[in-house]
Design a protein that fits this description.
heterodimer, A: about 450 residues, alpha+beta, D-Maltodextrin-Binding Protein, domain 2, three-stranded mixed β-sheet, about 40% helix, globular, B: about 290 residues, mainly alpha, MetI-like fold, 13 helices
């Protein structure tokens, strides 16, 4: 070091440098997200066609192309008849699907004529008196159990009455595997697991756990649209039951449900903990399965579509969800039906006209096909030509198979929202190793039963 | 004079009516609902103090209150320290100060939802910036938002990002400190630390009290980031289920509007009590100048 060339840095210069570095650090946070378009709500609402005898209001809760699809679907309905106009109002849900705008409009006595509902919410909403009983309308239209998938028909009813028509069937879940990764790990790329025991066996070939966590995994059992849905999926796959039909009481502590959650917790332990999972970058665009470090995954068709849009060459196989004996006896036993239905609020101004639109898009061949072509969700109506299209489509065929294999739905109870939230918290606690599966599910049962009792007392049921 | 009052009221009536209708009425209505069993879609039914009594035995409520207190306890002082630190740096008279001020203020104007999504990227265990930076110095970062033990600290770290407003207020306070006082202290032999403690701090103490009180109030209303980052669940394992989120769940998921109103009023009582206590304990130590 040459003493003569030594440069003295003043305190001010040092502080200036420090402030600059801190400023750059703060700015660097602003560079993480690449630029993108602001949320676009254009094309998600529409006014009714002019000159109609009656105009109905419909709350659409879908954004993006799905929401634009609903606008197009309403236009198609207006084009096949000239009596009813449809005003589509974009009313987005929040969080776990809460429909604040809808609930506030109902509370204010000014509801739309038609709105969306998640099937498992039907008991609660029906008991609250905010839904129109559709039983006579369904019967009058000649519709019956034979016209719908069994699980769909089950979800449309509460206490032997029909409250909604389910226009969207979400089979949870077809089971996918990454053929290239299977081959790389010495597994037969054409042979998926049939049972949960085989999932474990295959996972041992695939999983790699390093210092910073698992960088490659066979499966992430709890990444199934939340911990509650994971409990439902694998609980059913183990042959478990979440409700006792005669009493209507929840039974999350059913021994096979406990076994399923225990299996997920054990799987997490084998990876070094549920939080030590490093198989995909954070993204809102593509399911982690698409990054190629995950061997198997239960997925919905939209996730598969996203993956194929980003990686058209992604080589995958699809089959029915593996099961676990002795509780279940065949693949697909754990599949359950979710999705969306539509209902007529009890204070709707034009229930007859709303029924015409509802029946058209949810339970007629031409209307369900129009829905499939515009909104692009699988229908629950067995007479729909859209089902044949699904069967012939490579990407949708796994969902088609899962739909017809499914016999389960989420427990439909007045306290199902609360039940799901309890599962969300306590199943997570079991998977993160804070409590045992049995302890977690016992707490869920006790809390949910107390809440169900409170709800019944509140409404005098 | 009377004529002036009349016209004054006429011109301010939109604000007065708005305040009464959109603020006073909802506040009073929620107080009434807190004593009722109310589903939002059916008429409320008077049940006295039952909602408040139920809160005493509701484990989820206590857990959410603990989560809230934990976040408030750490995030408020951290916010004050960071804001004061940045303000001190900006007060040194370095060149390009407006640029730095803009840079530090920028996060404040990022919408809460966008900021929540941004931090999900930063906290990602493997691909996030934070763990990447830690890895460069040989530290294996935690799971942050995917680890029940680290999710709350992650939210606390995140809260320090939005201290821009507070920094500007602190900077205004620092610029009020008389330069002559600093010079006198220096000529009397006071070092930088001593001058900061005995000259600067008293002058910014009213601003710090303001930050403390508004921080407490804001902390108990903590909602949007956790709602965005967890999809309204309070995951993982309920570790980020704060009281505001639990209130929301009760109102819009479980149709317990009366119960949610009771939660709101208990939170209000806690905040009011803490604010009074803060003024009593800290207020007398604040220097307002000229005293």
């Amino acid at each position: 070091m040459n003493g003569g060339a030594r440069r003295v840095v003043s305190r001010r210069a040092a502080l200036r440098g420090l402030a600059g570095a801190a400023g750059l650090a703060a700015l660097s946070g602003c560079r993480v997200v690449e630029g993108g378009p602001p949320p676009n709500t254009q094309g998600l609402s529409k006014k009714p066609a002019p000159g109609r005898r009656v105009n109905i209001t419909f709350y659409s809760l879908f954004g993006g192309v799905d929401g634009q699809g609903w606008v197009e679907l309403a236009r198609r309905f207006e084009s096949v008849q000239d009596e009813i106009g449809v005003e589509v109002v974009y009313a987005p849900p929040t969080g776990q699907g809460e429909q604040q705008k809808l609930l506030v409009s109902i509370a204010a006595g000014d509801p739309p004529d038609l709105a969306m509902v998640i099937p498992f919410q039907v008991p609660q909403w029906a008991e609250l008196g905010i839904m129109t009983d559709l039983t006579d309308l369904v019967r009058g239209a000649g519709l019956a159990e034979r016209d719908f998938l069994p699980a769909v028909w089950q979800g449309m009813r509460w206490k032997e009455r029909v409250w909604q028509l389910q226009w969207d069937v979400d089979p949870n879940f077809p089971f996918y595997w990454n053929k290239a990764l299977f081959e790389e790990c010495g597994l037969d790329p054409e042979r998926p697991p049939r049972t949960v025991t085989e999932i474990d066996e295959f996972s041992r070939h695939i999983t790699q756990v390093g210092r910073s966590g698992a960088s490659r995994v066979g499966l992430v059992p709890w990444q199934v649209a939340g911990f509650a849905n994971a409990a439902f999926t694998w609980g059913f796959a183990f042959g478990g039951s979440f409700v006792d039909p005669p009493t209507g009481q929840v039974t999350p502590d059913d021994e096979r449900v406990v076994a399923a959650v225990d299996w997920m917790a054990g799987y997490a332990r084998s990876l070094g903990g549920a939080d030590r999972l490093n198989v995909a970058p954070p993204t809102l665009q593509m399911n982690p399965f698409g990054y190629g470090h995950m061997g198997m995954a239960p997925l919905g068709p939209r996730s598969v579509k996203q993956i194929l849009e980003a990686r058209p060459d992604f080589d995958y196989g699809a089959t029915l969800l593996p099961y676990e004996p002795p509780g279940a006896s065949e693949p697909g036993a754990g599949t359950w039906i979710g999705g969306w239905g539509a209902f007529i609020p009890s204070e709707a101004r034009h229930p007859e006209a709303a029924w015409e639109f509802l029946r058209w898009f949810a339970a007629t061949p031409e209307g369900t096909l129009a829905e499939f072509e515009t909104v692009n969700y699988p229908p629950g109506y067995l007479g729909s030509p859209a089902l044949e299209r699904m069967k012939a489509d490579r990407m949708l065929k796994p969902s088609y198979d899962a739909m017809f294999a499914a016999t389960n739905i989420k427990p439909s109870l007045p306290a199902t929202n609360y039940f799901s939230q309890q599962l969300e918290i306590h199943v997570a606690r079991a998977i993160y190793g804070e409590v045992t599966a049995a302890e977690a599910l016992r707490v869920v049962k006790e809390n949910t039963r107390r809440e169900a009792e409170r709800f019944r007392n509140q409404l005098g049921l | 004079m009377r004529r002036n009052v009349f016209w004054g009221l006429v011109f301010t009536s939109p604000a007065i009516v708005g305040l009464l209708w959109f603020t006073a009425y909802p506040v009073l209505a929620s107080l009434y609902y807190s004593f009722t069993s109310y589903t939002m879609v059916n008429p409320p039914e008077w049940i006295g103090l039952a909602n408040y009594a139920d809160l005493l035995t509701d484990q989820v409520w206590w857990s959410s209150l603990w989560n809230t207190l934990y976040i408030v306890f750490w995030s408020v002082p951290l916010g004050i320290v960071v804001a004061l630190g940045l303000a001190l740096l900006l007060n040194l008279g370095v060149g390009g100060r407006p640029v730095y001020r803009t840079v530090f203020y920028l996060p404040t104007i990022v919408p809460a939802v966008a900021s929540g999504v941004l931090w999900m990227y930063i906290f990602d265990p493997q691909y996030g910036l934070l763990n990447d930076a830690l890895a460069r110095i040989g530290v294996t970062g935690p799971g942050w938002l995917s680890d029940p033990g680290w999710a709350k600290p992650a939210l606390i770290v995140m809260s320090a990002w939005g201290v821009g407003n507070l920094m500007v207020i602190m900077l205004a306070g620092l610029q009020d400190v008389p330069a002559t006082l600093q010079e006198q202290a220096a000529s009397d032999g006071a070092g930088p630390l001593s001058r900061f403690r005995h000259v600067t701090l008293p002058y910014v103490s009213p601003h710090m009290l303001f930050a403390l009180v508004t921080g407490l109030i804001g902390g108990f209303q903590f909602f949007t980031p956790v709602f965005v980052m967890t999809g309204g669940t309070g995951n993982p394992a309920g570790s980020t289920l704060v009281s505001g989120l639990y209130l929301y769940q009760n109102a819009f998921q479980y149709f317990k509007v009366g119960y949610a109103s009771a939660i709101a009023w208990v939170l209000f009582a806690i905040v009011a009590a803490l604010t009074v206590a803060t003024f009593r304990l800290v207020g007398r130590r604040v220097y307002y100048g000229g005293q």
